[in-house]
Amino acid sequence: MSLDAVLARIDADLPASLDRLFDLVRLKSISADPAFFADVRAAAEWCVRELAALGFEASLRETPGQPMVVAHWRGAVKNPAVRALVYGHYDVQPVDPLNLWHADPFDPKIETRDGVTVVTGRGSADDKGQLLTMIEAMRALIAVDGALPVNVTVLVEGEEESGSPSLEGFLEANAEELSCDVAFICDTNMWARGRPAITGSLRGLVGEEVVITCADRDLHSGLFGGAGWNPIRVLTRILGSLHDDHGRVTLPGFYAGVEDLPETVRASWETLGASPEVMLAPVGLQTPAGEKGRGLLEQLWTRPTCDINGITGGYTGDGFKTVLPSKASAKVSFRLVAGQDPAAIRLAFRNRVEEMLPPDAVAEFHPHGGSPGIALPFDSPWLVKGLAALEAEWNVPAVVIGCGASIPIVGAFQRLLGMPSVLVGFGLDDDRIHSPNEKYDLESFHKGTRSWARIFAGLAG
Amino acid sequence: MSLDAVLARIDADLPASLDRLFDLVRLKSISADPAFFADVRAAAEWCVRELAALGFEASLRETPGQPMVVAHWRGAVKNPAVRALVYGHYDVQPVDPLNLWHADPFDPKIETRDGVTVVTGRGSADDKGQLLTMIEAMRALIAVDGALPVNVTVLVEGEEESGSPSLEGFLEANAEELSCDVAFICDTNMWARGRPAITGSLRGLVGEEVVITCADRDLHSGLFGGAGWNPIRVLTRILGSLHDDHGRVTLPGFYAGVEDLPETVRASWETLGASPEVMLAPVGLQTPAGEKGRGLLEQLWTRPTCDINGITGGYTGDGFKTVLPSKASAKVSFRLVAGQDPAAIRLAFRNRVEEMLPPDAVAEFHPHGGSPGIALPFDSPWLVKGLAALEAEWNVPAVVIGCGASIPIVGAFQRLLGMPSVLVGFGLDDDRIHSPNEKYDLESFHKGTRSWARIFAGLAG
Fold first, then answer.
1. 3-class DSSP state for residue A311?
2. Same domain, B356 and B438
3. Which of B371, B396, B430 is a domain's end point?
4. Number of helical H runs and strand E runs in chain B
5. Which residue of A has its CA nearest to B241?
6. pLDDT-based confidence at residue A238 (cuts at 50, 70, 90)
7. Are strands A110-113 and A79-89 parallel, antiparallel or unpaired?
């Protein structure tokens, strides 16, 4: 295989690649709206046809919802021992409000926006454009070499924009078939235009609602104030204990298993210009709220948090009512990083609540979700090779970034298939995914395809 | 004057006194309902007629709402230097739900309820029965002696059950005419059946709503969690700081001016049997929430409090939303005792909030009410004489009790007329005031009248 030949092939084939992207974008595969049921299925069938035409053993697989596309390449030329899964989704978000679109969302075009050449249309970025960067890269590899360098399984989902209700069942039912050494997912962003990135870590989440009850009815503070326990007082005292003066969470064992950021990564993050002025000022904030002494990106990506997402108790309407309410409640969540045990964190929180309850207060707990943080080790070969491939393509150091939230597919791959995921995406913050006038930079599509060719080629070595 | 003759007169006149109470209860003086406007006025006119017939210089005085009844007795025989104001109200609460009454609320009767002889009907206790205990006592004093022992001004209001909208203006406009040495108010309860009481202290109130704003919009905790300030975290940390481990309020200077309970009073309260089992268990509580080492009644009556009456922020519906809200707010109130300065308490709270705000949070304050606590000194002659009179009548030590709430008329008399109030009432917790089937014990009416004769007689000495 000559990588140069593959890249040249991608360049030469760009017009045809764009035609294929346009074909796919024209299919109105809105999974959330039953009116588009047939269009969604048509997009799945399109994927099967394209993959079969490339030589994959491709099939449309039924689920209780929209079908999965599964395609296997079993005849790797370079290193058939390596099995990589490639994941994307063929469904898109709804398009309303339609009147805010400058053109038909399902009639893709090339246009120049703010001096940048882009492909327009719903799904041009999320995720049809991104998905095709992987497929077009494989097309070129196969065209030049007659085969892929490693064995590949493609999984394309049709319900990602609807919460993936059929995904976990499908993974469980087909675990053996789908388990690979590593998954590559193209559904994330670069750090910035021209600055490629791999998302190496995702935070998990433990959500917990706590309801504190004191008296068995609301009381008048003129009759009971001072002697009657007030659940808001109890609750705020407990919640007020969760952080220390340095922004650290005070639950015992909260940081057990949390690893410090390697100096090299910290240094690379310092080159990203993610100052409070850039990251916080746009939403009216100035100073990072997290642990003192940790950088802003570190706080967002690789440090666990405790936040109160909702609280309510007593009288909250206009004016004033001197009530001692019977109940008060809060929704508390913890963003977790790799190494933390969600069950242990939940238990530590519950223990804190129970320890601080006065004898007259009772706490009830309602769990909401519990998923661990996930991180590729910074020295993971998948990560190291991916970064090298991206740097070669973009002529700039690629950066390992984090994501402060969860991405369910990554957790599902890890939990159900024991498979790590490498998140490489070429989206940009201004792609307007989920909004009117979605676009994908032509550069993202073209250099994204070239990037994947380099990444896949590198897997064999 | 022979007090025995006066008391004998009250006994002999009881049937006629009851007839007069029935006459007044029959007047449907519901001040809250405009449909009863004429009935309310008729009750005022009834009071004027009765007081004029006793020899008072009585008049109906117009206000923007219902009229005031003002009557003066200027020809005291014993000690004309003493001027006492007597206050009650002639209006009553609405009667709905009418279907829960066992009989017409405005057709009073004598009946036996749970073995106790009672007068039934709306206003039988609140406040027509209580008001007439004062007027019937004066009637007997005048009948026997030809005059009252001290000079008396009677003020009877017709909007007490509607928030007294005309009262303060009337007091201000007629301050000189109405200012006396002391006010006697008959609109409160005994400690228990057979155990007379004077309410010697009322708590004041400072209400304050605080709104904390961090970011200028709601944020996603996956994108900002850890680095973005969360106003619920800020608010709960502040509110959680307001009490120490001993239940004391931690605001600097909060207890300045607060006096300790005299040992004699503490001892008398210990005779009242006000255990947590009696006071708290009925509402599902067990242990007093206030300052450790202080009795339950002390916590309710003579110690200041801090309570959070309402709190809200973020997502409070079903399920979970990982939002970092822009705002969170709480309604905080302080029940104050005599000696505390409401303005200083409000300022101390605001200072605490400001001191604990991180740089990215802004607090807004909305004041709601501010009234000082009020207390008769435990050695006040009015109080001492009143207790002696009650003890003589009821053959049991009378007790100085407190009230954990404010009574607006007492504050208005103090603030606008510089006049202390002595609250003597013969209501009982089971009188069902404001509810269907209101009643007043016949004993409360009869011995209440005799009690007032003793109190008024005692004022001259």
1. strand
2. no
3. B371
4. 14, 18
5. A237
6. very high
7. unpaired
Contacts of B346 (CB under 8 A, 6+ apart): B206, B208, B367, B370
The β-bridge relationship of strands B327-336 and A327-336 is: unpaired
Q: Are residues B366 and B378 in the same domain?
A: no
**CB distance B398 to B198 below 8 Å:** yes
Residue burial A303-341, b: 16+ Cβ < 10 Å; e: rest: bbbbbbbbbbbbbbeeebbbbbbbbbbbbbbbbbbbebb
Q: What is the pLDDT of residue A1?
A: 52
Residue A461: the pLDDT is: 79
| Rounded mean pLDDT for each run of 10 residues along chain B, 461 residues in total | 92 98 98 95 98 98 97 94 97 94 97 96 98 98 96 97 95 98 97 97 96 96 94 98 97 97 94 94 95 96 97 94 95 97 98 97 95 95 97 97 93 96 97 95 98 96 79
Domain count, chain B: 2
A343 and A439 in a single domain? The answer is no
Provide, rounded to the nearest whole percent, the portion of chain B with pLDDT above 70.
Answer: 100
On the question of pLDDT at A160 being above 90, the answer is: yes
Q: Which amino acid is at B177?
A: E
Do A235 and B310 form a contact (C-beta atoms < 8 A)?
no
* Contacts for A418 with CB less than 8 Å, ≥ 6 apart: A179
Domain-embedded: residue B182: yes
pLDDT, tens digit, for every residue of A436-461? 999 999 999 999 999 999 999 999 97
CB atoms closer than 10 angstroms to residue A292: 11
Same domain, B234 and B322: yes
Q: Is residue B284 part of a domain?
A: no
Enclosing domain of residue A327: 204-263+295-371
pLDDT at A267 over 90: yes
Mean residue pLDDT of chain A comes to 96
Reported in sequence order, the residue ranges of A114-169 that DSSP labels E, i.e. its strands, are 116-120, 150-157
Instruction: Identify whether residues B219 and B157 lie together within a single domain.
Output: no
Which amino acid appears at position B459 of this protein? L
Question: Measured between beta carbons, which residues in chain A are less than 8 angstroms from residue B236?
Answer: 235-236, 239-240, 308, 311, 330
First to last CA, chain A: 12
* Residue A341 in tokens: 């045990």
Residues B164 and B15 in one domain: yes
Could you identify the residue written with the tokens 């309710």? B300
Please give the structure tokens belonging to residue A157: 């989902």
Residue of chain B nearest A312, judged by CA positions: B312
Mean pLDDT, residues A26-53? 97
B220 interaction partners in chain A (CB closer than 8 Å): 405
Residue B317's contacts (CB-CB under 8 Å, 6 or more residues apart) are: none
| Residues B435, B321 within the same domain | no
Chain A interface, best mutation among B208, B217, B223, B232, by max A CB count within 10 A: B232
Q: Are residues B124 and B74 in the same domain?
A: yes
Cβ–Cβ below 8 Å for A311 and B312: yes
User: 3-state DSSP call for residue B404?
Assistant: coil
Asked if the structure places residue B239 within a domain, the reply is yes
Q: Which residues of A touch B229 (CB under 8 A)?
A: 285, 287, 289
Q: Is residue A285 part of a domain?
A: no
Closest partner residue to A285 (CB to CB) among B229, B280, B313 is: B229
Count Cα atoms within 13 angstroms, Cβ side, for B387: 18
For CA atoms B41, B44, B46, B49, give the dihedral sign.
negative
- What is the value of pTM for the model shown? 0.91
Under 8 Å CB-to-CB from A402, ≥6 apart: which residues?
A: A199, A200, A201, A202, A203, A297, A300, A301, A302, A375
**CA separation, residue A243 to residues A252, A292, A335 (Å):** 12, 12, 14
C-alpha closest to that of B344 among B212, B203, B206, B204: B206
How are strands ordered across the β-sheet holding A110-113? A110-113, A116-120, A439-441
